[in-house]
TrEMBL record:
Keyword flag ATP-binding: no
A biological process from GO: methylglyoxal catabolic process to D-lactate via S-lactoyl-glutathione
GO molecular function terms attached to this record: glyoxalase III activity; transferase activity
Protein name, as recorded: Type 1 glutamine amidotransferase domain-containing protein
SUPFAM superfamilies: Class I glutamine amidotransferase-like
Lineage: Bacteria, Pseudomonadati, Bacteroidota, Sphingobacteriia, Sphingobacteriales
Keywords (A to Z) from UniProt: Glutamine amidotransferase, Lyase, Stress response, Transferase
Organism whose genome encodes this protein: Sphingobacterium alkalisoli
Keyword presence, Lyase: yes
Protein family per UniProt: Belongs to the peptidase C56 family. HSP31-like subfamily.
Top-level division of the source organism's lineage: Bacteria
Membrane spanning residue stretches: none
Classification via Gene3D superfamilies: 3.40.50.880
Amino acid sequence: MNKKILFVVTSHDKKGNTGEPTGYYLGEVSHPWEVLHKAGFEIDFVSPKGGKPPVDGFNLDDPTNKDFWENTVYRNKIDNSLKPSEVKIEDYSAIFFAGGHGAMWDFADNTELADITATIYENGGVVSAVCHGPAGLVNVKLSNGKYLVDGKKINAFTNEEETAVKLENVVPFLLESILMERGAKFEKSALWQPHVTVDQRVITGQNPQSAKGVGEAVLAELKKL
């Protein structure tokens, strides 16, 4: 139970060619962080480029966001995120990919993050993601050559939700569609409803409303290890 948890956040700050800013979604970091931090876990942060990642969904009226943002230790950690090459994989019992639209541009094709994820999983650890975070899972292959998500129940930001925010033609791919192409058994609820899926140490959540639930499911899974 003493091993740390690695949170992955995006380095990407623009929604395609729209000029609109994006980044990691603050509530999708703070809500799982609160659950796991209170349970005594130490959390580290990594981003594709390292350093200070862009933030989206910046709402300090949410008390959990405020607690995270004003925690000097964790604010310093996220603002100085590790590069994938700096991660000591054996230190972590779980990995969590936070969402925010930026994840759609720099998670899927990052081979270093994919390798870290596969190794944590094959070491018996927990892999988790919420909203657009499962973009980090689409190209993860295990040592048997199969995709991590193949044959597993998986959940993520749905095609309907992407259409509802009018970004279905802006994002480089539709997350639900590509996960299904990779063999995932995709589950979903109605728009903006909390939905958390757990299958074989892989935990995924549909949208920002699912972030705390993903944290709780990760904690429950870690207690079994």
